[in-house]
Amino acid sequence: MRHARNTLASVLMLLSAATALAQNFPSRPVRIVVPFPPGGGADTLARIMEPKLAGIWAQPIVVENRPGASGHIGAEFVAKSAADGSTLLMSSTASLTEKNVDQFAPVSLVSASAYIVTANPGVTAANIRELIALAKANPGKLTFGSSGTGAASHLSAELFKAMAGVDLLHMPYKGTGQALTDLLAGHVNLMFAPSQTVMPYVHAGKLKALAVTGARRSETLPDLPTVAESGLPGYEAVGWFGLLAPAATPKATVARASADVNRVLAMSDVREKMLGLGADPAGNTPEEFARFIREDQAKWSKLMKEAGIKAE
Fold first, then answer.
1. Given 204, 237, 270, which residue is the final one in a domain?
2. Alpha-carbon dihedral of residues 180, 186, 191, 195, nearest 10 degrees?
């Protein structure tokens, strides 16, 4: 009986400590690490959320870009950081693999949106059917940029290649921003890119949008057809961005951070900014986000094995 009481007391003390830790979170400035260069989708979303989270947490927040190795350099830095919620990762498909996913505690999905099949104006194709025909007539000559090997911008194009039976040349970059610069300059022909990255240039007439990669048309871009309806039936790919913490971060702290992130994603001005860029605000619980990541990785792991793609 004495042992049972001591055990119960210990458990209660641990629970009390975890609750106190969550209530005190954050006790110091917070760093959101974007594992890609400035200008990409992860960077854009982090900077939209930063001032709102800083207001809720009453702490300065620094968005820090740590690019390299398709997002793995920044991811590794966060995985090895203090597990107190003070260092978070704005992740995407590329920066998580089967090898490192267990090093993180999912906090919340920020956005899961269709990508935009975007072309330099010099590409003569005006739609997906014409793009497939152009690629078949010029095997290996059309190039597409991505934010790195294994990124959604890479894998969504690889899925397109496999389903359409075309040969496109992959040009990997250290981030979406760098790939976008070369797309604008005409050094690469195509990108499967986050809407918030490319649509401002589409509206300005500097790029052209051919289709969205989702199963349905985007509510914010209703005139843009899906890849499936405009030449490649059955095609669907979604890019996502979400916040993660080091794996050992206390569950109560993760839950508190998740609730605050969801609160920000529900704010009307944040939603307006994101939707204006074509990014659908998400938000969910840590458990739901963990399940989402598992399902997403299963889909892309199958494609990578079939195509012989090795993550960096």
1. 237
2. 50
